[in-house]
Design a protein that fits this description.
five-stranded antiparallel β-sheet; 5 domains; 18 helices; Rossmann fold; alpha+beta; globular
Length: about 725
């Protein structure tokens, strides 16, 4: 390891060991470390490289010097050739095995093919060529094999008549590739002249997006609209109005920015400029990166962009219906990153907990005034005497050293540059380690996908002891008809320790203290009982109740496996039949084969796929539940079945909807009604028989997508 890097790591470790390390010091050290690491990947004088010669062939050479004005290297060929000794930055590659997260589907790589000279001669070896990766297959041992094609053909002037030429390459290992440097890294090299900073604005946030996405009429997937809203509300400066910046300009603006916002899409991942800037911010400069996904396509998850944010939280502007909420989420993330970047006072560095927490706090931020004071939400439903975060702190003060799991204290941030585990895995481990779950239930809680997931996983999958606490607005009982309300009815049947505690009518500090004491006594009792079970070895043989819950959860898991026939999102909010080919755990995306042989849109997010099986129990669907429902038939024409009859019907399109009403007929049959969740009344697709609302669907007609815990097998 480079001695300077070792010194920086030692300095960071020293700061972390201090009880009150200064965040500003750590930020500066981190940036210096990233800069050192990035310049180490940029070719220097004396480095061995592969360089482009003629007809798109690459041969071994050595770096003599770099010209920052022309962005070219002067090299010496290993065979002594005196021609073609000036080459562009993008036409060289260090003779070094690349990192795995620098190569994804669509990446340009150098690979060897075709021997030249006589074997054994001093100047003989393999020609190297520029290729593009088209497929990656993960092996059981965790390594990957790569397939691809030549990036250039005969029409581009490439020589294709040499011995052993093949347009394709397959099953290559990572160590058989070399990659060109990021041209922006040249501006971090100390012996390279820095370009002029004249006329460049002082940028708070650097925004990066594909021009292709700005052509969309929808505000929610148009980066420019989102950026303008951000500039106006946060009073920050971005690079939006900087026209035709040079590479040096881009390097300066990214380097001085406090936050980098990437508007990720399939078009973004295919844009060389976007990839270059994204990698420079993420890998070279180490500045906070906020991933914002625009649109519905998820093919980008298999590219370098997807690899670099695997397991991180991102904000998904999928359509106009979620625009306002997602804009608020983006504002909060940006404000947090800006605040951390400018923080100069001492701050406590959170350490990993020495032991698991005894309880888990499951709540919705919209029910916490403390969240609003921290600018994490703009609107709160409820009152100060029913604030989950306040109650958490008051419980811990009474529980004699017992710790309770709270998301903001345990989870990594939305920008997980430091390599934290995924949010879902952290939550799942927190639930598994806890002895009791304290759920703060409200209408807002029941409408939150993450809260629903936590609650169901804790109660139905793990069979955890749960204390339900009712918060939110006093007259709000809509949640009782939701799936959360249905499950609550089931757990209350377990006994008095699971009976709900209602905080909505608490009006005085005295009443508040009494309620907190009641909650505290229940928590202490359950924790004590669980510890006694563990000490007696009862945990080795699970109770009949817990076995029943876990067996039912496994049997009813909605997570598809390879080979399953499923209904998957294609585009425009439409779902069609396909078969699962693979699952990528990092990106939480499935790759599917469409029944009609279509090759587009094959990478689908985990919660946009549903097994083609009926919902197992009516208790899984409540008011507010998102379901897939069939509506409007379509005609299928495939390469194997050329349909000629205009009336030939293949099946139904499926759409995502939200259940708004449930009724049970005299015979006991339950019927579900609702409306589309991805369209409003004016934007519903104009296909035959497709309407905004759906009425009186039976349970057997509905499909449910899995939640993250089911997919991860937690």
């Amino acid at each position: 390891m480079d001695t300077e890097v070792e010194k920086l790591l030692s300095a960071i470790e020293t700061q972390l060991r201090k009880g009150g390390a200064e965040l500003g010091n750590l930020t500066a050290l981190r940036k210096t470390l990233y800069n050192k690491a990035s310049t180490a990947n940029f070719p220097r004088k004396g480095d061995k490289i592969y360089a482009k010669y003629f007809k798109h062939q690459f041969f071994p050479a050595t770096i003599d010097s770099f010209d920052p004005q022309s962005h070219t290297f002067h090299i010496t060929w290993d065979d002594g050739d005196t021609e073609g000794r000036v080459v562009s930055v993008t036409d060289v590659a260090l003779d070094r095995v690349p990192e795995s997260n620098t190569i994804g589907v669509g990446s340009n790589v150098l690979f060897a093919q075709g021997y030249y000279g006589k074997k054994g001669d001093k100047f003989s070896g393999y020609r190297w060529h520029m290729g593009k990766v088209t497929n990656i297959v993960k092996q059981k041992d965790g390594t990957s094999l790569y397939d691809g094609v030549h990036a250039y053909g005969e029409g581009d002037g490439k020589w294709v008549t040499y011995k052993d030429y093949d347009f394709n390459f397959s099953k290559l290992n990572l160590d058989q590739f070399r990659v060109s440097p990021n041209a922006l890294d040249a501006f971090g090299v100390t012996d390279v002249a820095t370009p002029s900073k004249a006329n460049l604005p002082a940028v708070d946030i650097f925004v990066c997006y594909s021009d292709e996405n700005t052509k969309n009429n929808s505000d929610a997937v148009n980066p420019i609209k989102i950026i303008q809203e951000l500039e106006s509300s946060l009073k920050v400066k971005t690079n939006l109005k900087v026209r035709n910046p040079t590479l040096g300009d881009v390097a300066i603006m990214i380097g001085s920015a406090k936050v980098f916002i990437a508007f990720i899409s399939n078009e973004f991942a295919n844009d060389e400029k976007c990839q270059q800037q994204f990698q420079y911010a993420k890998k070279s400069k180490g500045i906070p990166v906020i991933p914002v996904v625009v649109g519905h396509g998820f093919d980008w998850t298999r590219t370098v962009v997807g690899l670099l944010i695997a397991g991180e939280l991102y904000i998904h502007f999928k359509d106009d219906l979620v625009f306002k909420q997602k804009l608020e989420d983006l504002k909060m993330s940006a404000q947090k990153c800006l605040s951390e970047a400018t923080h100069e006072g001492p701050t406590e560095i959170a350490n990993e907990p020495t032991k698991p927490c005894d309880g888990f706090i499951s709540y919705c931020w919209s029910n916490s005034l403390m969240c609003k004071k921290a600018n994490e939400v703009s609107l709160v439903k409820g009152h100060e005497l029913a604030d989950p975060r306040r109650i958490k702190h008051d419980l811990e003060s009474r529980l004699e050293g017992r710790k309770l799991w709270l998301d903001v204290e345990q989870l990594g941030t939305a920008n997980q540059n430091e390599g934290n585990a995924s949010m879902f895995e952290q939550i799942a481990h927190g639930l598994a380690d806890s002895k009791v779950i304290i759920s703060f239930i409200s209408s807002e809680y029941s409408q939150s996908a993450n809260c629903n997931m936590e609650f169901n996983h804790a109660v139905k999958t793990m069979g955890k002891p749960t204390i339900p606490i009712i918060v939110g607005e006093r007259m709000s009982d809509e949640w009782t008809r939701t799936q959360v309300g249905m499950v609550l009815g089931e757990i209350e049947a377990r006994g008095a320790s699971s009976a709900r505690i209602d905080l909505r009518d608490v009006k005085s500090e005295q009443e508040y203290r009494e309620k907190v004491e009641l909650i505290c006594s229940r928590v202490a009792q359950i924790v004590r009982e669980e510890e006694e079970k563990g000490a007696a070895g009862a945990n080795k043989k699970k109770s009949n109740v817990q076995q029943k819950w876990e067996e039912a959860a496994r049997k009813n898991s909605k997570a598809p496996t390879i080979g399953d026939h499923v209904i998957s999102h294609w585009k425009g909010g439409q779902f069609f039949f396909s078969t699962i080919v693979s699952f990528d755990r990092d990106s939480m995306c499935f790759t599917v084969d469409w029944d009609d042989g279509d090759t587009t849109g094959r990478v689908v997010k985990y919660n946009e796929v549903a097994k083609n099986v009926s919902v197992s129990s009516a208790s899984e669907v409540g008011v507010g539940t998102r379901v897939l429902f069939p509506q409007g038939q379509y005609r299928l024409t495939t390469a194997d079945n050329k349909a000629t009859d205009k009336n030939t019907i293949s099946g139904y399109r499926y759409f995502e909807g939200e259940v708004t009403d449930i009724k049970t007929e005299k015979g006991g049959k339950t019927l579900f009604s609702g409306h589309h969740s991805r369209y409003d009344k004016s934007s519903v697709p104009r296909f035959k028989d497709v309407k905004y609302e759906f009425h009186d669907y039976e349970l057997s007609q509905l499909r449910l997508a899995p939640n993250a815990f089911e997919v991860l097998g937690m």
